[in-house]
Amino acid sequence: MPDSLSARMRDEIDDQVAEAFDAYLEDRLAEPGPLRAALATRRGAGVVLGSIGLGALATAVAPTGVTAVCWIWAAITAVDVTWLLTARRR
After folding, report:
1. What Å distances lie between residue 88 and 16, 31, 40, 48, 80, CA to CA?
2. ∠ CA 32-33-36 to the nearest 5 degrees?
3. pLDDT of residue 9
4. Closest C-alpha to 35, from 87, 76, 90
5. Helices 46-61 and 66-89, interaxial angle, to 10°?
6. How far apart are alpha carbons 37 and 34 in whole angstroms?
7. Is the pLDDT of residue 78 over 80?
8. What's the burial of 45, exposed, middle or buried (CB within 10 Å: 0-12/13-18/19+)?
């Protein structure tokens, strides 16, 4: 009997945690972020998505060294962050 009570309590706690997490995500999704601001100002997100696609391609053809891949993604991050921050200012 104690095992079934414990299982029921775990299920109830899991349900409460899931509901709280859903509410948190709903609140976070309602907040404007840089990508949403870029889309709202009618600046396409094509630069961000295109740079990620090119980064994936560059990673596939990059030399086996980790350094080259790190430099590729650092450059992509810099471009994307700059693009999104300039979209937020306008």
Report:
1. 36, 13, 9, 14, 12
2. 80
3. 84
4. 87
5. 180
6. 5
7. yes
8. middle
